[in-house]
Amino acid sequence: MSTSSQPPLKITHILETCIYCTSLSASKDFYSNTLGLTPDFSTDRMCVYPLGSTTLLLFQLGKTGEDIIMNNTDDKPERERLVVPRHGPTEDLIPGLLERKEGGGLRQHFCLAVKDKDEAMEWEKYFNEKDVKVIGRMEWQRGGYSVYFEDPDGHCGEIASRGIWGHY
């Protein structure tokens, strides 16, 4: 066991972002056909979209509440067992999240990157043509531009150009 008070290595970036969906098939249709993303693989539990060095995961709400135990036997010590731990809203919260009241629900936020302001503005125009609900836009001090939209579950998506953060 390390006695160092410093993290062992530098973390380089977020590898995965996940979104919980009330209808995985409707969300897959939106992310694949409206946003033009190509899934790496898909099951009834999840859909995986590679995006550069990151990954967007769509999970069916209610299907991530149990650990996924992989290839384990009782004779293995606990530290050697392979487990993907449960995550997402607990079962008692799910009924409330399924009720789509105006402004209610989980409303997770995520941001997808584009090269420049012109590309972000093209997405805004495209969303309007496709009847995707545009819920906001922002011009940032560093020159970046964002357009915010709703996905089928009411999550707050953002398409943003360079210039919203010091590092992007």
From TrEMBL:
It comes from the Eukaryota. InterPro entries: Glyas_Bleomycin-R_OHBP_Dase, Glyas_Fos-R_dOase_dom, GlyoxalaseI/FosfomycinResist, VOC_core. It holds the Pfam family Glyoxalase. SUPFAM superfamilies: Glyoxalase/Bleomycin resistance protein/Dihydroxybiphenyl dioxygenase. PROSITE patterns: VOC. Residues 10-162 form the VOC domain. This is VOC domain-containing protein. It comes from Pseudocercospora fuligena.
